[in-house]
C-alpha cells in the first residue's frame, strides 16, 4: 500500500476543505467594509459566528499533516514562505480577536470592525501569494531551499493574491445570499455579480499567465495526451460560469453558492494536475518528501479515527445553524 500517496490525497483534501470553508468567512470579512449599517454588519458576523473557528481546524490539519508526514517538504517550504505565512497567521489572529471583542464594546466598535476587515484581507491576500509562489516554483538545491528571502514577492504572486481576494469575496457574497433575511439580501446580489465578474476575468488572465511564465506547466498543459484533460477543465469552468450568472440573475442563492464551490474544485483540480506528483512544485515529489512507512502507517491509524469526527462535527454545526438569520437574534 502506498501510504505516502494516501497522505498526499488526505492533505490535499484538508487544504481544499479549509479553502472552501474558511474562504467564505474570510470573504465576508473583506466585504465587511461595504456594509450599509451596524445592523447589517451584525448580521454578517452572525452568519459565520457558529462555524468560523471550526473552519480553521482544516488549516491546522493540513499544516500539521505536512510537518508530520512530509517533513522534507515542510523544511523546504517554510524557509521559502516564512514571511507570508507569518503575515497570514497574524491576520487570522487579528480577525479572531476583533471577532470576539467587537460585540463587547460600542465605543470602540469601529476599531474592531476595521480590524476584522484588515485581518481578513491580510490572511486572504497572503494565502494567494503562497499559492502563487508554489505555482511559480521555489529554488531547491540538494533537497534544501536555496532561494532568497523575498523570492515569494513577485508580480505573479501578488497577482495571485488579488485573484484569491476576488474569489473569496465571491464565495462570501454567495454565502450571505443564503443567510441574510429576506429584504436585506437584495443588495448582495449586485455585489455577488460584480465580485463574480471580477473573479472570472482575473482567473482567465491567470490561466494565460501561468503557462506563458512556466515552461514545465506549459508542457503539461499542451502536451499529448494531457491536453485533452486540460481542455475539460476550462470547458467545465465556462459552463459553471454561465450557471453562476444565471442563478444570480434568477435569485437562486443555494445553487449559486454550489456553483462557486464547483469552480473552486476545478481550480484546485487544475493545480493538482499541474503539479502532481510534486509536493514542492517542481522540485520534490511526495514520495521523496515522505516520512518512513512505519510513521505514515501509525499516523494514518490516528487520522482514520479523527477525520470522521472532524467531518461529523463540521456537518452537524452547519446543519444546526442552517437557514436564514433572524434580525432580532444573534450568537453573542
UniProtKB/TrEMBL annotation:
Membrane-crossing residue ranges in chain numbering: 6-35, 80-98, 110-136, 156-178, 190-212, 224-245, 257-279, 299-321
Source domain of life: Bacteria
Swiss-Prot/TrEMBL GO biological process terms: aerobic electron transport chain
GO terms under cellular component: cytochrome complex; plasma membrane
Stored InterPro entries: Cyt-d_oxidase_su2
Membrane-protein topology: Multi-pass membrane protein
Family: Belongs to the cytochrome ubiquinol oxidase subunit 2 family.
The keyword Transmembrane helix is assigned to this record: yes
Designated name of the protein: Cytochrome d ubiquinol oxidase subunit II
Gene behind this protein: cydB
Keyword tRNA-binding: no
Organism (species): Photobacterium rosenbergii
Location(s), subcellular: Cell membrane
Primary site of residence: membrane
A single MF term (Gene Ontology): electron transfer activity
Keyword entries, A-Z: Cell membrane, Membrane, Transmembrane, Transmembrane helix
